[in-house]
Amino acid sequence: MSIYEQLRERFDLPEEPPEGEPVVIPVDQHVAFATALKEAGFTLYVTVCAAHFPSVQPKAKKGEEPPPMTTEAWEVATVLRSVGTGSETFAWRVRVERPVVPTLYSLFAGADWQEREQYDLVGVVFENHPDMRRLMMPEDWDGHPLRKDYAIDTRVAPWR
Amino acid sequence: MRTFPARVDPHFDIEEYDPEADLMALNMGPQHPSTHGVFRIKLFLDGETIVKAVGYPGYLHRGVEKLCEKLTYVQITPIFDKHDYVAPMTNEQAVNMAFEKLLGLEVPMRARVLRTILAELQRIASHLLWLGTFTLDIGGTIGGGASLMMYTFREREMILDLFEMLTGCRFHYNTHSPGGNRHDIPEGWETAVKAVLDAIEPRLDEYDALCDNDIFLVRTKDIGVLPPDLALELGQTGPVLRGSGIDHDLRRDAPYHAYDLVNVKVAVDDGCDCLARYRVRVAEMRESLRLVRELLTMIPGGPIIGSKPIKSLVQFKAAKGQVYVGIETPRGELGTYLIGGGDQRGAAPYRLKIRPPSLHAVAAVEYLLPGHMLSDVVTVLGSLDPIMGEVDR
Amino acid sequence: MSPVVHALVIGIPLVTFLMGGAAVATWWERRFAGRMQTRFGPNRVGPAGLLQPVADALKMMQKEDIVPRDADRTLFNLAPLFPPFLVIASAAVIPFAATVGTDGAFEATGAVAALDIGILWVMSLAGLMVFPVWIAGWAANNKYTLLSGMRMVAQGISYEIPMIMTAMVPVIFAGSLSLSDIVAYQDANGWNALSLSPSALVGAVAALVFFLASLAEANRIPFDIPEAESELIAGVMVEYTGIKFGIFMLAEYLHTIVASALTAVLFFGGPSGPGPEFLGIAWMLGKTGALFVLIYWIRWSLYRLRSDQLMDLCWRVLVPLSLFLVMAAAVLVAGGFA
Amino acid sequence: MAVDEGPRNYEHPAYDYLEQMPGLSLAMTTVDKVLEWSATNSLWIFPMATSCCAIEFITAAASRVDIDQIGSVVRPTPRHCDVMIVAGTITVKMAPRVKKLWEQMPEPKWCIAMGSCAISGDFYRDIYSVVPGIDTVVPVDVYIPGCPPNPDQVLLGLQRLQDKIRSQRDGVSTEPETRPETAKMILPANKRVGDPDRDPLLTDAQHDASRNLGVGTNTDRAKDARPIGAITEDEAANVRGTVDDK
């Protein structure tokens, strides 16, 4: 039985794993999902990737009312890996409209700096993280550079 | 079953430490000869014993991930050369494999074997540089460490010359692209590779002998002990994980390139300390020498790059979705989490997250340093082999 | 000859020789390290790079003299003066030559001041060496120099004990505290560390311990933790600029030369050796040079110990061993074997 | 933080004493020559080594090139050094440290920008966190181009610096004109965190801004920013699952 089928018994997942992208799960199941994976042998913490999806105006079809603005959203994808021969990865995403996601620090100590980095660059706050400070940028930096509304050449005194 | 000391809590409040103690806060870095670049560690010292260590990366944060969102897939490769500047070849491979997976491109067999050879040669070069700088940390810039560093740089130059023969560049090659390689094997390259391998192999024994002395052993043994469970939780990969006794190597466990054609023997050492990491890396160098020799005999003919015109961006129009690809670089699993479809034409990533093995490695210092002496900081940091370009990106 | 004239006639050449030797030593070390490391070393400035130390010294004199704002100005400026002074003063009692005495016997001469308590003079000056380094480490008001100074004090006062103890072994053999008498004894009975008599076994081990302790006193690898560049950047010299830093460097090389000379005198016969007496100065130079080369050979081949391991080595190995050596020497002398 | 690129004519105080001594004025030219020779032939290097160029700089100090040939020693503390070689990208977080280390070096001192990142920022030039060329922080004497420069180019750069020092001391060289980028530089509008002159309200405001994630709404920086990097609707439409079709 594949790991996906095992997880489907416990969590509310689609019948087949989505093709070409990780499965999306509700944010309140995030920690339980990670715990289940860790117990199933996915013990190596690989990475966490947060992405920002800003509010945009979708294209209107000709002669129709323009559709409503999309809501601003954040996606946090987590990747775990099983160790040893036949090693494979498992990735899942949570999608939130408020950039607050529970931390995995209690399960994986490595989530400490990774989540701090994502907070620093994308601005997703990881709840219950023991030390949510900036990692890459100076402590007095304004904004979160990897958000889509942050210009790549944002003015930084005194250089630009 | 080996028992390890209790795990250090890196977030413990320094105010709660013994109020009688006379603590000294010492900043190492960002400009320090032994922090391997611009890493900064804040140490709280009780005498010379470290009570708490706090790491501050980010002094080389160059916004690579933001930059990648502005470039098309073929333009990203040269950026990745600069990112782990000790092993540019494997960086290019990591990111291009992610693109190939997202775009569904097939790599010809000749390119796959060539990529494997390049990756293994790069592994030798990278570990040689690591050996030199590690002994430099233990032995000092005016001391025995400097001597060994000069020797290892001599051998590293030989390998860089091979790369220069192939790509015309010493350092930042830009030889991989989605779907294959740019530079085909020049005439006489195989002979040159064999000559270099023959030159390096006996010298590795000499370096082993140089490190097999009591001072080296007492400086590395039982220093920076990283228990296996903590190593997994911290996401350690590569020699750091294998030095903690976990038999895990993506070259064997999840083969890519042409690693399924050869039998990779994985070096594991369950010492969990700096000495174990040293042994793993030296064993890996010997294994890589063997692998390159074996692979040189099985280079097939045929094209080096896929038939699809990579410069045309139109074919990438449909590139959507999210993929994760990780490969085994000299420092561990270098992964790329890629969300496709950023550009209007879909030719650029929407978001590209690099999973640097060095950032995970360097995060371990907060767990490894407390309880050790000031001198062990450089040993532990050196044994983790962090490259700041990769840590900060 | 009055003592003052004597001191000037021998002292000025000695100081010149030591200073010149230290300058040549910097050039030689860089060439030697280059040869060990498959590179060249300085070879463009003057013939074979020989003028490199001159250029370095003149450049240092031109540099701006910075005293850090928070430093203790007086102590900071005072500290560099002492190390070369102490080292040269301790060289004053070392006999560099040999003559035939009035009674036809071998006599070691050439010391600026042939004190009867020569060995005590050397050891007390060596004990003072930790003070300027500690002053420099404290005065700069920098955490790295402070750590370096603390390490220097800990290491200096620890390694003094085996150094003095093992220096007592030749003293017991010769029955005199005068370095000239020790050399004369070795000329008559064979070198302390290298002869066929049973005492040479004790002498050889004592020579090894003394040599290790002098390495530690002179801050050479593997005992150079006060100036550990990979941890403490440059030790107490971190904040010194220009010629003050140059004086510290000079003192280091002088210290190495004097430590080699002292080991040669105490255990390898100093100016005594086969052949006529006027060759004594050549013997002395040869032995000092050989030990000097050995020190730098070790420096460019070995790694560095950690500070607690250094203390372990001293207190758990060298101190008991040196105590045992002193007792063994006493027993040998009492039993008439030496 | 505009850089003063005016002529630097540091002279050791000892020169004054020497010139006042009778009979020395004739000898001064010779003495000058000797001092110039010593200054050019003993260039000790402070490596401000951050990224890729650092590796090539170490290679330059290793066997094949060996900058020790011309008497250049690498010392890890700025107090002992004459030349600062900036090898690698300098970020906004690192730049104040570079400036501080440069100020800790004793006069006379020189700076070499090694590699295109240190010269202009290279392709990181327009990125929010990268300094567009180290000459906006410290005055640079010699530029060594390349990405990264070959190790022998480091030796060549040091020899070019020797030429420059000679011509400066002989009075035949003039300082180059200020770079246009440097001239346009503005002073920091806000004091950095930890500066006693910094407005405490500013810190609070920034703290709040990053706390409640109200980025890009009320800060001046957001107004000035050109939205090249901002997403267009077409881009967003390409991303699966972002556009709510309901």
List the helices and strands and how they pair.
The complex is a heterotetramer of chains A (160), B (393), C (338) and D (246).
Chain A: H1 3-10, E1 23-25, H2 30-39, E2 44-53, E3 73-81, E4 89-96, E5 100-102, H3 111-122, E6 125-127
Parallel strand pairs in A: 1-4, 5-6
Antiparallel strand pairs in A: 2-3, 3-4
Chain B: E1 23-28, E2 40-46, E3 49-56, H1 64-68, H2 73-81, H3 88-103, H4 109-139, H5 144-167, E4 176-177, E5 180-181, H6 189-211, H7 214-220, H8 228-233, H9 239-243, H10 250-253, H11 274-296, E6 322-329, E7 332-339, E8 351-355, H12 357-363, H13 365-368, H14 375-384, H15 388-392
Antiparallel strand pairs in B: 1-2, 2-3, 4-5, 6-7, 7-8
Helix pairs in contact in B: 2-3, 3-4, 4-5, 4-11, 4-14, 5-6, 6-11, 11-14
Chain D: H1 14-20, H2 25-40, E1 45-49, H3 52-61, E2 83-87, H4 95-104, E3 110-114, H5 116-120, E4 142-144, H6 151-170, H7 180-183, H8 200-211, H9 220-224, H10 233-238
Parallel strand pairs in D: 1-2, 2-3, 3-4
What is the CATH class name of chain A?
Answer: Alpha Beta
What is the strand content of chain A? 15-25%
What's the helix-strand series of chain C?
A: HHHHEEHHHHHHHHH
Q: What percentage of the residues of chain C does DSSP assign to strands (E)? A: under 5%
Q: What's the helix count of chain A?
A: 3
Q: Largest contact between protein chains?
A: A-B, 43 and 45 residues
Pairing-aware structural class of the strands and helices of chain A?
alpha/beta
Q: Based on helices, strands and strand pairing, what is the structural class of chain C? A: mainly alpha
- What is the ordering of alpha helices and beta strands of chain A? HEHEEEEHE
Largest sheet of chain A: 4 strands, mixed
Cα-to-Cα separation, first versus last residue of chain C: 36 Å
Query: What is the count of structural domains of chain C?
Result: 1
